[in-house]
Design brief:
- By secondary structure, the chain is α+β, with helices and mostly antiparallel strands.
- The protein has 2 domains: 64 residues; 76 residues.
- It is elongated.
Length: 165
């Protein structure tokens, strides 16, 4: 993953494993390639549709493949990708976080988040080994608790701990 230029006040507390990141990249590129391939085949499929009076089974399957690979699959992959947090940084002085996610163009974007804005919406399991979804300003994000450098950082980010002063 590309490193992002952040202030020295922020410490890295969460990072998606490199293998998971590369799997996500492979799936994204494969999806874009598949969509381009079906767009290339679209004129032939349309000619087959207009040649016959009725829609035969092979043409229906071709149309279904065109629909799935050019619209449904890329949009669902992009929907998941923009929610997945690749890296999270924490500033202890201001108790804010920087969340690094990915855009549809496969570029990274950062967002500043105050701890008070984080609303945990769902955890997949009791032992916190799957994923946790949370909302910030009506945007959904997904993190995987095992990828936090220190488990206490996850607890602090999700609001499970309270600062004792």
């Amino acid at each position: 993953m590309k490193s992002t230029n952040l202030d020295k006040d922020y410490a890295l507390i969460y990072e998606l494993k490199r293998s998971k990141y590369h799997q996500l990249q492979f799936i994204s590129y494969f999806t874009y390639f598949l969509a381009a391939y079906w767009v290339y085949l679209a004129p032939d499929i349309m000619v087959g549709v207009f040649e016959h009076d009725s829609l035969d089974f092979n043409t229906a399957l071709d149309l279904l493949g065109l629909l799935i690979s050019t619209f449904i699959l890329p949009s669902s992959i992009q929907y998941f990708r923009k929610q997945l947090v690749l890296k999270a940084y924490h500033n202890k002085a201001t108790d804010t976080y920087k969340l690094v996610t990915q855009k549809a163009t496969l570029r990274q974007r950062t967002e500043d988040v105050a701890k008070q804005e984080i609303n945990r919406t769902w955890s997949a399991s009791k032992d916190m080994t799957i994923q946790t979804k949370f909302k910030v300003k009506n945007k959904k994000y997904i993190v995987y608790p095992p990828f936090f450098k220190v488990p206490a950082d996850y607890n602090n980010m999700m609001g499970f701990t309270k600062n004792v002063e």
